[in-house]
């Protein structure tokens, strides 16, 4: 299975076997079960006030570094747990 969220503050979750959750929109977040993959974008604002995608990273939910059933956002190049 796969889930994607591309809009403002969208959320994607992958709760099936080896699924993928992709959150590419501003303020997006992703969550998954063990063995799933999370892809999250980080957005920044330039000096003219325009938003741009600054980074996109993918991590596997391993239960150690990336926890199961925890929402994550990408901040300063790191997966950061956030409240649902």
Briefly, what is this?
This protein has 84 residues and is mostly beta strands. Helix content is 0%, strand content 54%.
Could you characterize the architecture of this molecule?
With 84 residues, the chain is an all-beta fold. The protein contains no helices and 8 strands. The strands form 3 sheets. Strands 1-3-5-6 form a 4-stranded mixed beta sheet, with no helix packed on it. It has a two-stranded parallel ribbon with strand order 2-4. Strands 7-8 form a two-stranded antiparallel ribbon. A hairpin with a 2-residue loop joins strand 7 and strand 8 (78-82). The protein is elongated, with a radius of gyration of 12 Å. The mean pLDDT is 91.
How do the helices and strands line up, and which of them pair or pack?
Layout (H helix, E strand, L loop, with lengths): L1 E4 L5 E4 L5 E4 L5 E4 L4 E9 L5 E10 L10 E5 L2 E5 L2
Parallel strand pairs: 1-3, 2-4, 3-5
Antiparallel strand pairs: 5-6, 7-8
Helix content: under 10%
Low-confidence stretches: none
Order of helices and strands, N to C? EEEEEEEE
Q: Main β-sheet: number of strands, strand sense, barrel status?
A: 4 strands, mixed
What structural category do the secondary elements indicate? Answer: mainly beta
Distance between the termini: 21 Å
DSSP E strands, number: 8
Overall 3D shape: elongated
Sheet-strand content, in percent, reads: over 45%
Radius of gyration: 12 Å
| Overall pLDDT metric | 91
What topology, given as strand order, has the largest sheet? 1-3-5-6
Number of helices: 0
